[in-house]
Amino acid sequence: MQRILIIGATSAIAEATARRYAARGAALHLVGRQAARLETIAADLATRGAKASTAVLDVNDLAAHAAALDAAWSALGGVDAVLVAHGTLPDQAACDASVEVAMHEFATNGTSTIALCVALAQRLQAGATLAVISSVAGDRGRASNHLYGSAKAAVSAFLSGLGQRLRPAGINVLTIKPGFVDTPMTATFKKGALWAKPDQVAAGIVRAIDRRRAVAYLPWFWWGIMQVIKAIPEPVFRRIRL
Prior knowledge:
Layout: E1 3-7, H1 12-22, E2 27-32, H2 35-47, E3 51-56, H3 65-76, E4 81-84, H4 92-97, H5 99-121, E5 129-133, H6 146-166, E6 172-178, H7 198-210, E7 215-218, H8 222-231, H9 234-237
Parallel strand pairs: 1-2, 1-4, 2-3, 4-5, 5-6, 6-7
Helix pairs in contact: 1-2, 1-7, 5-6
């Protein structure tokens, strides 16, 4: 039986991923901010074949991380894979207007994730996988979401180094880079051909964990898109509205 810890378990991608593990009969420990929502998800997963437990955590309360992870290890009896899936999609204009808002959003999408990964790396054993949802937005800063993108860039760079450090210990670090995903967080956005559904991304996450991949662009075609965007010279890029 796989033992899976999911942090940010109420997100659409995390819930879809949990359902895929439930179909395998996995044991899941769900961590998030909303107790009632966590319990609803856990009950659904139980009907799908999983053993599920829950715990509440505000990821920005860094002092609470250690106790939350200790509780997760206790609930599962050890952890085979972790999915760190929490995050927000900041209003860039609000971040531009307020240092406080900007730093809070950076902490939620960047600092809290890095802090969790430091603590998780101390607990994981050989054969385990630490999978973290970053974003294609972290591959290059864009005017429309550069606060979010900078936080994800920090996460991606940290995970690259962490994966290099933990590889000799037999621990795999997976950086997940979704593109546009149709979730409640993006409900107001106009959708198009490049948009994916949460279950489509979840399938890619589970596959990448199984294959012990280092990086997964989801859907796959975002790798090519981002290679083009990263190759644009900076003087030209500054003139493009993205």
